[in-house]
Amino acid sequence: MTAFDPSVPALSVQGLQKTYDNGVEALKGVSLEVAPGDFYALLGPNGAGKSTLIGIVSSLVNKTAGTVQVCGIDIDADRSAAMRQLGLVPQEINFNMFEKPIDICVNYAGFYGIPREVALTRAEAVLRDAQLWEKANVMSRTLSGGMKRRLMIARAMMTEPRLLILDEPTAGVDIEIRRGMWQTLKKINAEGTTIILTTHYLEEAEALCRNLAIIDHGRIVAEGSMKSMLARLDVEGFLFDVEGELPAQLPEIEGATLIALDGHTLDVDMPRAMDLNRVFDAFDASGIRVRSMRTKSNRLEELFVRMISAPQEAGHAEVRV
Ligand SMILES: Nc1ncnc2c1ncn2[C@@H]1O[C@H](COP(=O)(O)OP(=O)(O)OP(=O)(O)O)[C@@H](O)[C@H]1O
Ligand SMILES: [Mg+2]
């Protein structure tokens, strides 16, 4: 693989707009940049415009306005050169179930003019990476759901793309299979391929991605590093399961909000910087004994809900962190 020019983004999208024939404005001016080598998440609720954005970048959907550059190549100036930089894993499994994984990979490379000898060597490498080499010669229809998804990734890697885009690669697969796919994707990224993925699983973005954008109603409502995004969450929520009944008078803890959800469950919101011991000391003083505690929600989930439920006026202001 050729070395990256660190000054050229793997993807640069400027002022992207898409109005479908039926009048739906799926993208209302989206701009974003993904650095080479990055692992980038595109998060957003159903209908936000994620697949439309991916469709335009991969030349499957015509844009209404704006520009797209893949590894510095404008898709309008040289569409096929831009597409050669890019590997796409669509959400739906779309290989021929009656072909073998090895043939699916080699034939795919053939569409891109990769000689058969080269393709055979690459197929072994990508199938090994996807932990599918033992299955290279079975009928694809006999693969498990997780194996089929890994085959989609292996096939996309046949062209050695510099940018791999995955549209909800783990939708509907169980956590074990997802974790296995995370390993595959991490390895691909560690070897230098930039990855962009859309996902509804926020913990997936938190586990994998360094940077992210949250898209809602065709606009980017937040963009930045995962770290800074999470740091913006200055409030943490915990649920405490207590022994026996909660006292009628809950303790007062400055800066924290306590709500009794029922007779033995306490919901506590507190600043992240606050020492948890202060809470335990106050509980002790009130005779509350904690049986177990857990964090209230996934932190990214919390941010996500806050961003997309922000009032429209606030939602319009792009937040960069
Ligand atoms: N071919 C199409 N013709 C008309 N409208 C479309 C078409 N494709 C998508 N849309 C509309 O564009 C908007 C954005 O859809 P898109 O598929 O990009 O969202 P998404 O973020 O990928 O959602 P999901 O998470 O459900 O996959 C939606 O309102 C959708 O109904
Ligand atoms: Mg979609």
From TrEMBL:
Domain of life: Bacteria
Molecular function (Gene Ontology), one example: ATP hydrolysis activity
Transmembrane segments: none
Keywords: ATP-binding, Nucleotide-binding, Transport
Cross-referenced SMART domains: AAA
Domain ABC transporter: start-end pairs: 11-242
InterPro entries in UniProt: AAA+_ATPase, ABC_transporter-like_ATP-bd, ABC_transporter-like_CS, ABC_transporter_ATP-binding, P-loop_NTPase
Matching PANTHER family: ABC TRANSPORTER ATP-BINDING PROTEIN, ABC-TYPE MULTIDRUG TRANSPORT SYSTEM, ATPASE COMPONENT
Name under which the protein is recorded: ABC-2 type transport system ATP-binding protein
Organism the protein comes from: Solilutibacter tolerans
